[in-house]
Amino acid sequence: MIRKEEVYKIGRLGKAHGVHGEVSFQFDDDVFDRVDADYLVLEVDGILVPFFIEEYRFRSDTTALVKFCDIDTQERARELTNCDVYFPLALVDKDAPLTLSGLAGFEIVDAETGKSVGRIATVDDSTANILFELEDGMLIPANDDLITRIDTTSRQITMSIPAGLLEL
Fold this sequence. Notes:
Layout lengths: L6 E11 L4 E6 L3 H4 L4 E6 L2 E12 L4 E6 L5 H5 L5 E5 L18 E4 L5 E9 L6 E4 L4 E3 L5 E5 L4 E4 L9
Parallel strand pairs: 7-12
Antiparallel strand pairs: 1-2, 1-6, 2-5, 3-4, 3-6, 4-5, 7-8, 8-9, 9-10, 11-12
């Protein structure tokens, strides 16, 4: 069984494309193209399920058309619409540059107290003010001035969190 701590979100599936089972894939991180990965992990009905990639092709810098093994019809592809797509952390090159979406799963630690604030579920970069969304729903600004240390080995980000932010 795949656990959320073992993967990080890289995008979401859109509509079925064509009649042979292709589906559009909007992604934040093209790690699936940079790393030799045979599969992506989809969240289907709350369960993380590996889907093996038959082929894919890029439509733009943030969209690809993906054909998964055993998904051969438009109807089967439609069943995957709006599934969140995750990538296994075990397949990520530890020496590769860190991306924003690659920070999902990192633990936020308060620099002042040394206590854990929570674990990053997703990174919201849809606006100029990038936010870490924690698993409990709390939002923390992902400002460079607040980050004091990033430890990729222990998957922790130490931050100087503004007074009062955690009480909101």
